[in-house]
Amino acid sequence: MADNHSKEVRSMNMSHIRSKDTKPEIIVRSFLHRNGFRFRKNDKRYPGKPDIILPKYKTAVYINGCFWHMHDCESFVWPKSNTEYWTNKLINNKNRDKKYHDQMKEKGWKVIVVWECEINDNRLEYLIKEIRDDYADSS
């Protein structure tokens, strides 16, 4: 199936996709801040510039878009045009994510991934539990 947009329109659409301060990131950050968590965002000192770094809890939170990070959910659909490019791009994204997560874990950090399709009140409440779990054990 061909793309519904011209190359110019598709290019313009793609150029407006943000890599940080996305709506899912803002929702998660706002929720954490309202619940008393203080954090850094997109800190370049850490592998993959995690979306949220909680130094007190030694936790990195990556908030992933289902398409860009190939989540196994109904929100992820393989593009039908330029498939070779997208296959390579998305597989490289997924491999890079794993590399960054592994590097953070090797440094003793807990890594939490929040998927765009999962963001709801239950998932956000569970996120707090995930962040605090190991911290409570070590205190």
Ordered list of secondary-structure elements with their pairings:
Layout: H1 7-15, H2 23-34, E1 52-54, E2 59-64, H3 83-106, E3 110-115, H4 121-138
Parallel strand pairs: 2-3
Antiparallel strand pairs: 1-2
Describe the structure.
With 139 residues, the chain is mainly alpha-helical. It has a single domain, classed as Endonuclease, Chain A (3-Layer(aba) Sandwich), CATH 3.40.960. 45% of the residues lie in helices and 11% in strands. It has helices at 7-15, 23-34, 83-106, 121-138; strands at 52-54, 59-64, 110-115. The chain has a three-stranded mixed sheet with strand order 1-2-3, sandwiched between helices. The protein is globular and about 55 Å long. The mean pLDDT is 89.
Q: How many distinct beta strands? A: 3
Low-confidence parts, pLDDT < 50 over ≥5 residues? none
Write the CATH fold name. Endonuclease, Chain A
In angstroms, what separates the terminal alpha carbons? 56 Å
Query: How do the helices and strands follow one another from N- to C-terminus?
Result: HHEEHEH
Structural class, judged by helices and strands? mainly alpha
The biggest sheet amounts to: 3 strands, mixed
In the residues, how many domains can be counted?
A: 1
Computed over alpha carbons, the radius of gyration is: 17 Å
Q: What is the CATH superfamily classification?
A: VSR Endonuclease
| Total count of helical runs of at least 4 residues | 4
- The CATH architecture category equals 3-Layer(aba) Sandwich
Characterize the overall form: globular
Q: Approximately how much beta-strand content do the residues carry?
A: 5-15%
Which percent bin holds the helix content? 40-55%
Overall pLDDT score: 89
Instruction: For the largest sheet, list the strands in their spatial order.
Output: 1-2-3
Q: Which CATH class? A: Alpha Beta
